[in-house]
Amino acid sequence: MKDYDDKKLKSVTKEGLDLDETEDEKKKQEELKAKFEPLCKLMKDILGDKVEKVVIGARIDESPCVLVTSEYGWSANMERIMKAQALRDSSTSNYMVSKKTLELNAKHQIVEELRKKADVDQSDKTVKDLVWLMYETSILTSGFSLDEPQNFASRIHRMIKLGLSIFEEDKAEDDDLPPLDEGIPSTEGANRMEDVD
Q: Which of 8, 53, 60, 166 has the fewest CB atoms within 10 Å of its CB?
């Protein structure tokens, strides 16, 4: 259904949703976009080609972010159906699947705190982890399926450890190497090399 009672219907899961706003609401939205522009740019840089763009949205009420598709792209349900098809055309599916926009809720406490943390240090590993975690949770809440669930699980486990105050010491990189043979005289070592020859 495209329209009902002379009113055009629009999907709330697609970008380009225009809500009737007053002039004051539009002005506040523009101020929020300007304020959060550095965070949106940073998140786009971190996520790379996983999203087409990161923007401040007006549709979200309780969630920190949501993933929406382009106006003519597939919905989450359609994408799931097409991925399940045995004889699908991969060129079409790649085009239709790739157009996703991450919309942030600027009024949400998580997004505000992430902006403050990113302003202090953009190269902070925690910021990158949180950006990926927000993106992956938005994939799930928006109805899409995760490409790499093991990465999502490991991020969740790190957050649980952090919440439980479990701090593991970084293991030395050489732990995997076998111990060196000790007590072998240098001549014996040379004889071994001659045996190999």
A: 8
User: Residue 44: its pLDDT value, please?
Assistant: 93
Domain ranges of the chain: 7-168
Measured CA to CA, the distance from residue 192 to residue 184 in angstroms comes to: 11
**What's this model's pTM, rounded to 2 decimal places?**
0.67
Where does residue 6 fall: left (phi above 0), alpha (psi -120 to 50 degrees), or beta otherwise?
left
pLDDT surpassing 90 at residue 45 = yes
* Res. 175: pLDDT tops 90: no
- Fold observed for domain 7-168: Four Helix Bundle (Hemerythrin (Met), subunit A) (1.20.120)
β-bridge pairing 53-56 and 100-104? parallel
